[in-house]
Amino acid sequence: MALHKASSFKTGDVAPPAASADSVATVRIELWDLPLRVFHWSLLAAVAAAIVTGEIGGAWIEWHAKAGITIVGLLAFRVVWGLIGPTPARFIAFAPTPGKLLAYVQGRWRGVGHNPLGALSVFALLGLLAFQAGSGLLSNDDISFAGPLAFLIGDEASHAITNWHHQSATVLFVLLGLHVAAILFYTHVKKDKLVRPMVTGWKDVPADLPKPQRARRISLAMAIAVGVGAAYGASGAWVAKDPAPVPPSSTPADKASTDKAPAW
Q1: DSSP string across 128-175
Q2: What mean pLDDT do residues 130-147 have?
């Protein structure tokens, strides 16, 4: 029975080899970096808030809009992080090509991070969430809600987009259900714990696989800036609002004439 002494690591360092159940040499690496993990759980919270407030409706619809704006900012961050972030976060690193999909089905695929089928789920969810959030910004129900950017298009187009927004919500529920089912399958059937690395960041992987590279701090700053900028743009706060009408009031001249008026 091998005993491993605890030690500390800097972010992105590779931990000492650990013995696995099947005697295959493994190393512990930081698979999912902190910014990606914060994005993942923040997106989960924002999507849950959007679903709940959207179903309740009424006065909660304003919070539904705020959740949608938050999702826009998070997705913008993820796009940038998927281009210049650490290796496992980059889209090109886990893009599900036909060759990778075939290798995975045949049991020949080896890698860290998202497997090809999981990558399909990731791209589908990100794409549909982008559509849902974007269409929500342009929606208008003619009753109590108008998206912050609905003024950019005509009423007819806004009504059509509103309908698409409602219809695609059903597809989103299906994808979310499949996503949860896949996690449960891999956790309980294939004994591949997917949730823990998304919480801690660390995972044991085969020692002969390439180790992920960290991102530079400037990359993180750029991704955050784009995310914040996207959320600001989606909020419509940049649009000049018409000033509220000033209620009529007595002018000094009117007051003077009133003061001089005889009392009857």
Answers
A1: HHHHHHHHHHT-B-SSS-B-TTGGGS-HHHHHHHHHHHHHHHHHHHHH
A2: 91
Q: What is the pLDDT of residues 146-200, one digit of tens each?
A: 999 999 999 999 999 999 999 999 999 999 999 999 999 999 998 888 999 999 9
Spatial separation of the C-alpha atoms in residues 34 and 201, rounded to whole Å: 7
Q: Is the pLDDT of residue 18 over 90?
A: no
Q: What single-letter DSSP state applies at residue 26?
A: E
Beta bridge partners of 17: 27
Region 203-210: mean pLDDT is 88
Contacts for 171 with CB less than 8 Å, ≥ 6 apart: 128
Query: What single-letter DSSP state applies at residue 248?
Result: P
On the 0-12 / 13-18 / 19+ scale of CB atoms within 10 A, 14 is middle
What residues contact residue 236 under an 8 Å CB cut-off, 6+ apart?
Answer: 137, 148, 149, 151
Cα 132–chain centre separation: 12
Which alpha helices (H) appear in the chain, and where do they start and end? 34-56, 61-84, 91-94, 98-105, 116-137, 155-188, 195-200, 217-235, 252-260
Alpha carbon separation from 105 to 14, 99, 206, 261 (Å, rounded): 29, 10, 20, 95
Question: Residue 242: its pLDDT value, please?
Answer: 58
| Exposed / middle / buried, residue 179 (Cβ in 10 Å: 0-12, 13-18, 19+) | middle
